[in-house]
Amino acid sequence: MDAHTKALTIDGNFVEAWQSVCVSKRKLGDLRGAIEAGKRAVDLGPKSSRPWRVLAQAYHEAVLLDEAEHAYRMAVRLDPKYAKAWDGLGCVLLDKGEREAAIDAFEVALRADPNLEIARDHLLEIQSSPSIQRKKTPCNGR
After folding, report:
1. Contact 3, 13 (CB under 8 A)
2. Structure confidence by residue, pLDDT tens digits, 133-142
3. Mean pLDDT across the chain, nearest whole number?
4. Domain 1-79's class?
């Protein structure tokens, strides 16, 4: 039995354990299970930005872009300096074809954390290619 399963056995209301389940299921390719675990984490911690970002990553990987955008926006609303959430939002916006909004999100990510290399890479990539648009990005998992 892994650690997050043990934690859920002891206390099913442990938000961090549900976040871990979401991430684990996503990495195993169980996107439906990841989304359900992410929703449970959000239900238990709706005022925390981390569960929203974890759920957003699952939605994004499942190519549920509107849901991913909403979840990322909730994460950054709760923590406006959450650079990784801004970066994820930028990836979703780019996937939706909203290039200028994606650039804005990547720039906010870099203002929040100037050392977030992945946001810098995304911004440079989008600025160097006027026609860039991704259908499935490598933004998840960070």
Report:
1. no
2. 654 345 654 4
3. 88
4. mainly alpha
CA angle 118, 139, 31 (to 5 degrees): 155
Do 22 and 37 meet the contact criterion of CB atoms below 8 Å apart?
yes
Question: And the tokens for 126?
Answer: 């989008």
Q: Are 132 and 105 in contact (CB under 8 A)?
A: no
Report yes or no on whether pTM surpasses 0.90: no
Q: Give CA–CA dist 22/31, Å, rounded.
A: 9
Q: Which of 67, 113, 121, 109 is nearest to 92 (CA)?
A: 67
pLDDT at 65 over 90: yes
**According to CATH, where is 1.25.40.10 located in the chain?**
1-79
pLDDT of residue 1: 39
CA–CA distance, 46 with 122 (Å, rounded to integer): 28
Residue 28: phi, psi to the nearest 5? -85, -5
